[in-house]
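Section: Multi-chain targets

For targets with more than one molecule, the full set of components is provided together so that the structure can be written out for the assembly as a whole rather than chain by chain. Components appear in the order listed by the source. The example entry contains two components.
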Amino acid sequence: MLTTILVDAIRSAVILGGVLTAFAYVTLLERRLLARFQLRIGPNRVGPLGLLQPLADGIKLIFKESFIPAQADRLVYVVAPIITVVAALFVYAVIPIGPPVRLFGREVPLYVADVNVGILLVLAASSIGVYGIILSGWASDSKYSLLGALRSSAQVISYELALGLAVLAVVMMANSLSLVDIVRAQAHGWFITTQPVAFLVFLVAGLAETNRAPFDLPEAEQELIGGYQTEYGGFTFAMFYLGEYVGVITMGALSATLFFGGWQGPGLPPVLWFLVKVFAMVFLFIWIRATLPRLRYDQLMGLGWKVLVPVGLINLAVTAVVLVWRGGAV
Amino acid sequence: MAVLFGGVACLALAGGVGVIASRRPVHSVLALLLVLGSLAVDYLLLDAQFIAVLQLIIYAGAIVVLFVFVIMLLHARSGEVARVPAVLPPAAAIPVCAVFGLMLLVVLTGAAIAPAAVGPAFGTVQEVGRALFSRFLLPFEAASIVLLIGMIGAVVLGKRLPPSPPDAGRPAEGPGEGRSKRRVELR
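Its structure, encoded as tokens over all components, is:
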């Protein structure tokens, strides 16, 4: 019993540490890549190739004065970034990064928990994350924050629906809600080949869910200063950034798990395959940010409700018909 | 298990007290969120994983978000104190306490009954789905129709009247008249 708890604790700690390190380096990666896309050099002074830049940023943000606006609702103001971070990290309890391995004579699965409702848990965490946005915008008592929060939560709630529809198609193919089973179901062909429409819907909805360009309206600097996080500084600011970038990594990990066969692949060790796929998706996200201009707000809502949701529904219906026709499910 | 249940139950109770004791509506909503989250953990302890996650997605993720939206838009100027009196008049308190006491009595005396044994598949998505689409098919479909009516109602209420379609049913009404009439009604 005690050993099981210990193993679980170590496993959680390793995954948490890995995600946080990845977060730090995705910020650096994004800055360096954006610089390259724009024919600049990017931060390369701190450490070799600028590799210590995230550390320097972190130390700087920790030592900054943390102030709370005078009119702010103090409790809610403090709780909001915590909700964001917890909701963002919570997801990693169910994302499998590799098949079970033998370590020190015992079978260790490379995921914290294989619950039979894994993918629903991911969706639940993302819907809890909305609170971080709404509450931070409301508690700051600033009009820019409030407007940013309204925009952002409307966007996240709308696109959650499209995201869920895309995920449902995969669930129907795999016949399970468990992420481990979904990966196993792709042993003879990744779902990207059978569900390309679902992947496109998932990708667009994922970009909007994480408030990334071209859907980064909540943070449209020209209109809203910093959106819902305008009034946050120092470490609380870093917490919102953690939420955003961990969200990007989560979307990468989810697309790898749902559409690209998770840890499966020839040659390389499974964990490495998974990391390669996640990296490719994160790179794609950054690439898109450097390429596409921001959408207008009504276009964004129109795209969500009038294009993605109907396409997702039709895809779901077609998938169901084909599955029943082939006698694959039921 | 018992320790976890005790902790979660205390959290839920604290949340419940918070809902009625907070002076600001947003704090009440946060406390409500705490109650719903604790209930989700309770469902987990009862081996009902699917219900626990649904509790989070539907109640915490959708319904309470709507509450927050309404409060934010109505009380945007941060923290109006609720107008309702915080303490019930004694006349109302006595029946409420009586009902609560009765419920407590029933639960405490009923605790001696052994809980029903369940299979290993209990609470999984498959089981819940099978029950919904076989034994409870009629209530399930009825609920879906009720929800559909609600959605249609929301669309009708939210729809602006068309600016100037010369409607066959109302030939006397000029362009724009319908809209101004609706404005008056809204007030």
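Residues 168-187 of chain B have pLDDT under 50 and may be disordered.
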